[in-house]
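Filed under: proteins

Residues; backbone shape codes:
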Amino acid sequence: MKKILAVLLAALLLLTLGCGSTNTATDDAEDESSSLDLSQPLKSPTSFENKRVLVAFFSRAGENHEVGYVEKGNTALLAEQLAALIHADATFEIQTVIPYPVDLKEMTETAKQEQAKQVRPLLASKVDDMAQYDIIFLGYPIWYQDLPMPIYTFLESYDFTGKVIIPFSTGSSNAMSGKEADIPNYAKGAVLLPGACIRGKTVRDDAAETKQRIAVWLEGLGYHN
């Protein structure tokens, strides 16, 4: 019995050490990325050199389930930080002709109905000469594990042949929904690169952590000081 107990204790110790090693590696990776000088725009990877970059985003102001009423949406705040870090050539806010309700309950009902019917809301404006951009960072809030319907309208409104789309989003966690993988089905001809999601509350309440998370993601894409 003592031998069996000893074996079980040894196995438990190995599991504990393994978990500790995994956490340490993750923490070390984050610490290493903090050495990036985030006070200056990051240099783009070689494959992005001489490419024009657009940061396009959809965001909603009004009542928010985590942070209350906001004058500027979480995704808009994230887009501003991202555009500054990568020194984007331009930003474009995707806006609908009919604004979404300010009231959270009304907005929820509207968004769910649009999603169920696969509505394509009319957009208030278009990007001037989309052809001039090679890389589009595309931002949006995650609504019910999907992209907001205006994003689909945007994706179906342009020719993305030969262009790179890089999604970024805000939500109730730091995880993408998985629906971003379908973007090339709507943006015909586009190449999709890995995206990132940052919790909306973090974007609003902790600018330093937000910037750090953006930097870690961008470093994975090849951006550097």
